[in-house]
Amino acid sequence: MSNIQQDINSLKEIVQANKTWESINPEYAARMRAQNRFKTGLDIAQYTADIMREDMAAYDKDTSQYTQSLGCWHGFIGQQKMIAIKKHLGETKRRYLYLSGWMVAALRSEFGPLPDQSMHEKTSVSSLIGELYTFLRQADARELGGLFRQLDTARQSGDSSLEKELQSKIDNYQTHVVPIIADIDAGFGNAEATYLLAKQMIEAGACCIQIENQVSDEKQCGHQDGKVTVPHEDFLAKIRAVRYAFLELGIDNGVIVARTDSLGAGLTKQIAVTNEPGDLGDQYNSFLDGDVVNGAEDISNGDVVVKANGKLLKPKRLASGLFQFKQGSGEDRVVLDCITSLQNGADLLWIETEKPHVGQIAAMVNRIREVVPNAKLVYNNSPSFNWTLNFRQQVFDAWKEAGKDVSSYDRANLMSVEYDETDLSKEADAKIQAFQRDAAREAGIFHHLITLPTYHTAALSTDNLAKGYFGDLGMLAYVEGVQRKEIRQGIACVKHQNMAGSDMGDDHKEYFSGEAALKASGKDNTMNQF
Asked: N or C: which end of the chain has fewer CB within 10 A?
């Protein structure tokens, strides 16, 4: 017996036990239950945490089973993404949503657009999680509502075969609700602040929280200069704070992504506490750049001196008071960061790199896996990379090293359209197309995401529409560039009244008022043109 049939039967008993409820239709009530499967954010967090854990285990057995997501800055964008995935690919398996701190700062702050420096209201992060899941749940309700209306029509026409088919679709319905990997930046304050925000995010539905090892009040976008990291113990305290939040709320298998910015971060705000040679603090301090102190005459007023590697060291301190790491120490610091995070409660890693290069990523991951064999990454397929130029240059360099003639190419100018149809560019595009598959296999990347793709698609589509509409094309710019494509591609929101919930409202009016219901979907509704 299907879940919905069980609900119908149990609701019949409830209605029959309450004499004044005789006008309540148990099947309608059961439909409403089916359309509202997740009652709370914690229900969602547990459901999606289970999915992520299953996917992580599947990837460990077979790297072709990697997962993907796109960053979404509004509930509607997330909803349309998942509707598109179900329409084109048939199922949502291994497809997630990403909540980008960058896009929250740029698009969701009451201050207006802000840089990715943790200046936006931290509660806007949990608010967006709740909004995304509200829209995904509405997508479920809308799609199921359409199936219920089709079921009623099949019953009325006596088409038992179609009725059986529709009932099967309802009984085996796949939800639009999927895991969200949610960016908590550097925790928005101390460990207690991190814990409080993590709780809000989990209560809103987050099963996976990503946190980075930058200083909260100096946080920068991973693709900007001036990044400042914290000693490991400071970062581990925040990882523990997030784990406590998951455990307190009963999401015992919640997922933590530990991000390291050490590859591009050349500064630290503080010297680590160390108690003995070789401990974690001593290892952190060993990366500090500075001068060896031979005597008191080498120390000036205000200088700081530490003992590192068996010697007294005067770390280089900038006018800002920040301390500088040794040039070229980034990869070693990344490896230590990652091993330490995995050994202290993190589940996945995020290494922020300056370019998308499988070999570079794999070199670091292989070192990490010497200590933690099942280490795996969440990787940012960032729009901050010039993917075209990067991969054309990678092919150029490989060809040159192999002795192939590259004299017809200008390496510095490979972005030029004149190279678009060349063999070099075609090979580069093939490498871009295979990047996620190759990196999953060779570099331990479990999850591929693009942080802010829908920021760029919104800008691009708006530019194209504005150019034509306010130019010579006028209304044809919208009709040809938008509506005609929506109709021909079967974009659901071409029927925007339906997408906004009009038909669901009509269903409810009929449930509540019967034949007296004043519906919006009658013959004069212009949506009937579609």
From this structure: N
